[in-house]
Amino acid sequence: MTQLSPAEVEAVARAAHEGQTDKAGRPYAEHLAAVAEGVRARGGDRDQIAAAWLHDSVEDDALSRQWLAEAALTPRTRAIVDALTKRPGEEPEEYARRILATPGALLVKESDLAHNADPERLAVLPEPTRRRLTEKYTRMRALLGLVQG
Predict the structure, then answer these.
(1) What is the DSSP string of 104-134?
(2) In whole angstroms, what is the distance from residue 96 CA to residue 91 CA?
(3) N or C: which end of the chain has fewer CB within 10 A?
(4) What is the pLDDT of residue 147?
């Protein structure tokens, strides 16, 4: 089976999240593009960039677990997306352990957290939401051993 090209992965992700918006009301694809660019800028490889485009797709029900299992992706890309997919009721510590145990996943999550915690992005949210999310992202960075900055 021929692997999906980077452009094809991006197109699938954009189509899967079509009509979805982030907490600030922006098109969700903007977040995916920012995470993918962050992975690229951090030296990520093709598998990690593909995973960046798809990192929220299963969790957000944009694509199914079956699609992920059957898609023309490398096993590594599949594993990274699976690692980044939170399970219902999962504790943050368990989620962090899975990310740390999956080669390549930490870089993608680091880029995701960096974009989620972007002060400009958070500034448009109501103060209680901004505070809650900032605490959530700070805690996850600590669990993953990522130094702030």
Answers:
(1) THHHHHHHHHHHHT-HHHHHTS-HHHHHHHH
(2) 9
(3) C
(4) 77
